Amino acid sequence: MTGETNEFFRALRMVKDEAGIRAEFQDLPLSALPEGDTLVQVQYSSLNYKDGLAVSGKPGVLRGYPMTPGIDLVGKVISCESGQWQPGDAVILTGWGIGERTDGGYAGLARVRSEWLVPLPPPSTPQWAMSVGTAGFTAMLAVLALEDHCVTPDRGEVLVTGAAGGVGSVAVALLAAAGFTVTASTGRPAEADYLRSLGAANVIGREDLPALKRPLEKERWGGVIDSVGGATLAGAIASTRTHGAVAACGLAGGSDLPTSVFPFILRGVMLIGIDSVTCPMHRRQAAWERLARDLPAEQLQAMTQIHPLEDVPALAQQILAGQVRGRVVIEVGG
Ligand SMILES: C=CC(=O)SCCNC(=O)CCNC(=O)[C@H](O)C(C)(C)COP(=O)(O)OP(=O)(O)OC[C@H]1O[C@@H](n2cnc3c(N)ncnc32)[C@H](O)[C@@H]1OP(=O)(O)O
């Protein structure tokens, strides 16, 4: 790839016209790329719940059309006008609005801003980076947030909701590796053995979570990582132990939060918001380095499946239906 304008690259594009919104595979010229100072040859992307929403044409993720979805990518720098990166550098990009406000990772080429990129931490591989992806990066930020708020293994069980999903699976593996007693809550009882293999000490069904009947439930969790939101998050807050912390990362079950102030003012429970999209650079690099050091490679491999770009439209339906376990790597350029 020389960067000349007569070259074409393959992309999965979301298009909108009078017939509606749909996904199309297209061969695009370099001139179709958005503005940015750095051209990257994309090797892999990944599939997150948010990508499922975007590729299925659901409202709220893509801010314009046509657009290339894919909120994650890893690849090699082809050229960088700012001088921050050299041709051949291996870089990771998650968040910052790619696959939402500007073109994302489901294409052979991406033009992005140099300050969004993180170096691939050695000795990791590009495939490893996308096995982690936004979901795993979000899980790492949630674990760091609990640690920052003094949640330590001696403070008792840590609850992970949506545990068989991407964020949940990585959170279970990271917490177990750090010595926590993890209770994994899932809507898929058939995944109990899988969750135990990642290190969960207990696996409970979604329906077995403490019901939100009163503002304060029996104290149980030293900490919580929640991808579900809604009544699940409210119930988790109400059953968190005094001075415990809850990291809220998602809304797979709802965006409402039917809670009261009692857990906060009577138990000092801390509710921490996790936003991986705009996470500052020093925190990003620290999180990626920690993932490279502490996320057990065997568990990451066990939770990851690899698919070609062509499979993304079908996989998008599956992730929205709660049928995707763990993480999905998407082969873009190999
Ligand atoms: C991937 C993370 C992000 O995108 S972070 C980016 C910034 N944050 C956001 O944009 C928030 C919006 N994103 C989300 O809400 C994400 O969906 C997520 C953070 C909640 C999870 O993303 P992930 O890629 O891990 O999704 P999965 O589909 O792999 O897992 C979801 C998990 O939740 C269960 N679930 C689905 N629907 C419901 C429901 N109605 N009630 C309860 N639980 C639900 C789903 O089945 C998975 O867990 P399981 O163990 O199967 O119960």
TrEMBL record:
SMART domains in UniProt: PKS_ER (SM00829)
- Which residues does the UniProt record annotate as the domain Enoyl reductase (ER)? 20-330
Signal peptide location? none
Residue spans crossing the bilayer: none
Any single GO molecular-function term of the entry would be: acryloyl-CoA reductase (NADPH) activity
Please give the name of this protein.
Answer: Acryloyl-CoA reductase
Question: What organism does this protein naturally occur in?
Answer: Deinococcus puniceus
